[in-house]
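Hey,

Quick one before I head out. I ran the complex with pyridoxal-5'-phosphate overnight. Inputs first:
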Amino acid sequence: MAPSSTDPPRVRLARLPTPLHPLDNLSARIGGPRIWIKRDDLTEGPAGGNKLRKLEFSMGQALAEGADVVLTAGAAQSNHCRQTAFAAARLGLRCHLALRGSPPSGAPDGNLLLDELLGAAVTWVDDDAFDDLPAVFAEVGEPYRAGGRTPFCIPVGASDEIGAWGYVEAAGELAGDLDRLGIRAGHVVAAVGSAGTHAGLRIGAARYGLDAAVVGISVSRSTPELDERIDDLADRWRRRYRQPADIDGDGSEVLDGHVGPGYGLAGPEVHDTIRRVARLEGIVLDPVYTGKAFHALLREIAAGRFGGPGGGDGAGDVVFLHTGGIYGIFPHREQLTAPG
Ligand SMILES: Cc1ncc(COP(=O)(O)O)c(C=O)c1O
């Protein structure tokens, strides 16, 4: 498709703007910078999360191309897949998910249960085949094409140059929030998986004058791998939309020292942080993304970053982006209910 310098197609799915509010009970206990939370877990009640912002653009593009089926892929408990199933149902499109692994032995739970409720079709794909997603999409899409339908493929996490728009625009929203509240935030902290959220925020920070470094907390991949992805995403966005994406030397970064035992796994310290934030602030984080990222934020503050304990070094406040993922607590039910 020819690059365009016009606004990208967009369909409204998320309840925006999401709230931004301080976590004063927690900030007072930590004695570091004031922590604010941007509630992107509330983009649409139980169907909410960061993907809905991206899907406004992915689905917008799908509709602009005349698609009537969307294909996407992810882990069995993918938040992205659940939000795609939601968006498709809302827009009257078919949704077909390629999920990594094999079907559960019992009844579906968590996001998978919601995928089913929302009417998504599911194809289970083993690890080796999943590494070649274009081939998976070609195979899953074939019967639809043969039946005269028009499938549209959305990559894992909607993390391509189209979906990145969701967080380009979110950066503009956040800049407006901070202006209105008269806050100076030196840092925005968020979990990084497929990196579309992080890349979009950085492009948007430059575009909308959000004067804050974006600190990504990797939940799986190494910093060099993510840096490469982020540069590639920014480059593709720049080329497709012919607009500047000035992310070099912006002071933002991705930290890979908080992955812990691996993707989807969390140590007891992360479960403790989830309990602590729930009890002090009435906010529920998940063990796969937001709990890990929030725990990393607390560790970094304790190590003197972002103003450190005592705060007040002029680094400004910190905004934590809550990207959703609540259904991720259920597979960790035993660890989360351990005495604490
Ligand atoms: C709850 C939650 N937070 C954060 C992320 C990471 O976002 P991204 O894939 O854009 O890096 C995801 C991705 O699946 C997610 O589900």
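The first helix runs from residue 24 to 30.

Talk tomorrow,
K.
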